[in-house]
Write a structure and sequence with these properties.
Layout lengths: L3 H4 L5 E4 L2 E4 L2 H7 L3 E6 L4 E4 L1 H7 L3 H4 L13 H12 L4 E9 L5 E12 L5 E9 L1 H19 L6 H12 L7 E7 L6 E7 L7 H14 L3 E4 H7 L14 E9 L2 E10 L7 H69 L6 H31 L7 E5 H19 L3 E4 L7 E5 H17 L5 E8 L5 E7 L33 H11 L2 E8 L3 E8 L1
Parallel strand pairs: 14-16
Antiparallel strand pairs: 1-2, 3-4, 3-7, 5-6, 6-7, 8-9, 8-12, 10-11, 11-12, 13-15, 16-17, 17-19, 18-19
Helix pairs in contact: 6-7, 6-10, 10-11, 11-14, 12-13, 13-14
């Protein structure tokens, strides 16, 4: 090791050709308001001034002669050693930001200005001036940690991954070798531990239970040093410590001001956590609260959606089962009614004949309702199998429906028009579901039009997509009903006094059939002015 007396022999205080000369050096070095040290090539402190010793919490003689890694943080030792070597390989001044350790075990950050020099014996030395930049760097680190936690709230990750990321982030700010998160289960009030890391690799759930009770009793954050922890041992909330911590910080996690968990850190190696550490942990906890609140909201949404899907599935299965049970006796009633009517056609009165017509109309209406229920049940339960074929939308779908619906329109005195396109409009689709889609739209248009016409217009729109418009001069649709018109069992008029029959499944089926065929439905309607339903095939 270089002898400090050799450094102070001369009277000049200057660096010439990389060599140290020492006029008034002793006085300037000792009285400098800056923290300064001289380290030899092997890394041993040759000289430290009082400001340097004070900065690290030591006396001068506790550092001189010791290796400089005495002031390194446990995770920065290799970096400091590398920087020490770099100083001797760099011409001129080298400025570095470094993480270092105080005598009490707490970490902080410094800006070191380093220069390689030689003494009169040509021994290599490093002279360094140290400035504490902890506040600036710590603020930057805290902000980056909080930003990282905020980013985690938008990711779909497991709790362990979430708290591992938070633990790693906090470790950049303070020494945290023992980190645990506890959460109170809302249903049974039991404490769960999504994350526990300690240097002993032991199960400390019983200890954490007591520590969480202490936090709940205080209803606030708790900072304890070793003396206060020893005093706590007589308290009813006292944990049964196998290893007594030197320092403890517990910060509650809250949802709507209710404590639902805690972040707990402990140190067993002499580090004394400060009020500043507690405040940083409180900041972190406030962001974790936001993450937990978002996760809870997402879980509630998923649960509500699952319950809604289960309810819809049960309803659909129930309706399908009931429909099957109704259809069998209904077919028998209609068959026997038709048979009796045929047998008695020459002898029954006009009044009795009308009764048979009532039975037939009512039966057909009920049959159509059952078919609607069964069809929508198949789609909702994903039992409908798509059969894709190439179809001419005019010739294979719309024209057959025109023929089928023409009598119904004429009976109401309506004109039913089908405009023939200029060229064949061919698509690959499921012909049955598309036919059902347009059957329901045309049937509705006729049903809700008292006078005028219903026009079916297939064409290629301005975007090059095949589009079919169903245009009527009917009663139109109220603007406030538009958002719910495609929901199952939805009707603009409700109750027994409604003007039109039906159970509100037609448009729901239309939307489902459109989705099956990658088609979009647009509606333009005004009350008492008519409607235009546009089906656009993508």
């Amino acid at each position: 090791m270089a002898n400090k007396n050799n450094i102070l022999e001369n009277t000049d205080t200057k660096l010439e050709n990389g060599k140290l000369h020492n006029q008034l050096f002793e006085q300037n070095f000792a009285q400098s308001k800056n923290a300064m040290c001289i380290v030899d090539y092997d890394g041993n402190f040759v000289r430290v001034n009082k400001e340097y010793a004070k900065l690290f919490g030591y006396k001068i003689d506790e550092l001189e002669g010791e290796h400089f890694t005495k002031i390194s943080a446990h995770d920065s030792k290799d970096n400091l050693l590398e920087n020490h070597k770099k100083t001797f390989n760099t011409a001129g001044i080298l400025k570095l930001e470094e993480k270092v350790k105080h005598k009490n075990g707490t970490y902080f950050y410094v800006l070191s200005t380093n220069q390689s020099i030689n003494n009169e014996e040509s021994e290599k030395l490093r002279i360094s001036t140290i400035v504490d930049i902890s506040d600036r760097l710590k603020n930057e680190l805290v902000q980056s940690v909080l930003l990282e936690i905020s980013k985690l709230s938008s990711k779909s990750i497991e709790p362990e991954e979430l708290f591992t990321s938070i633990h790693n982030a906090i470790s950049h700010i303070m020494p945290v070798r023992n980190f645990a998160v506890c959460l109170e289960n809302n249903s049974d009030k039991k404490i769960e531990y999504p994350y526990i890391k300690n240097e002993f690799n032991t199960d400390e759930k019983k200890t954490l239970n007591k520590e969480f009770e202490l936090l709940k009793n205080e209803n606030d954050s708790v900072l304890l040093d070793k003396n206060k922890i020893e005093e706590l041992l007589s308290n009813k909330y006292s944990p049964d410590y196998k290893n007594l911590p030197h320092s403890f910080v517990g910060v509650p996690l809250k949802l709507k001001e209710k404590i639902i968990g805690a972040i707990i850190i402990k140190d067993f190696n002499g580090t004394r956590y400060t009020n500043e550490n507690k405040e940083v942990l409180e900041l972190v906890a406030s962001h974790v609260n936001s993450v937990l609140e978002r996760k809870k909201y997402e879980e509630e949404l998923i649960r509500a959606r699952k319950e809604a899907e289960e309810s819809a599935k049960l309803k659909s299965e129930f309706l399908a089962q009931i429909s099957h049970e109704i259809r069998t006796p209904l077919n028998s009633i209609l068959s026997f009614s038709s048979l009796i009517k045929s047998e008695l056609k020459d002898v029954i009165s006009d009044e009795l004949a009308e009764t048979f017509n009532f039975i037939e109309r009512g039966g057909n209406r009920l049959t159509r309702t059952i078919e609607l229920i069964l069809n929508i049940s198949k789609i909702k339960n994903q039992q409908y199998k798509i059969d894709l074929t190439e179809v001419d939308i005019y010739k294979d779908v719309l024209y057959p429906l025109l023929v089928e619906q023409l009598t119904k329109a004429e009976d109401k005195g309506l004109k039913l028009n089908l405009i023939k396109p200029d060229k064949p409009l061919k698509l690959v689709l499921d012909q049955y579901s598309v036919s059902q889609l347009f059957m329901n739209l045309i049937d509705n248009a006729i049903k809700y039009t008292k006078e005028g016409s219903v026009t079916i217009k297939p064409f290629v729109n301005e975007f090059g997509k095949i589009q079919v418009d169903i245009i009527d001069t009917g009663i139109g649709i109220a603007e406030e009903y538009m958002p719910t018109m495609f929901e199952a069992f939805s009707q603009e008029e409700q109750g027994y006094t409604r003007s039109y029959e039906g159970i509100g499944l037609g448009l729901s089926l239309v939307k489902s059939y459109a989705d099956l065929n990658n088609a979009e439905i647009k509606v333009n309607s005004k009350k008492n002015k008519g409607s235009v339903f546009s089906v656009i095939f993508n």
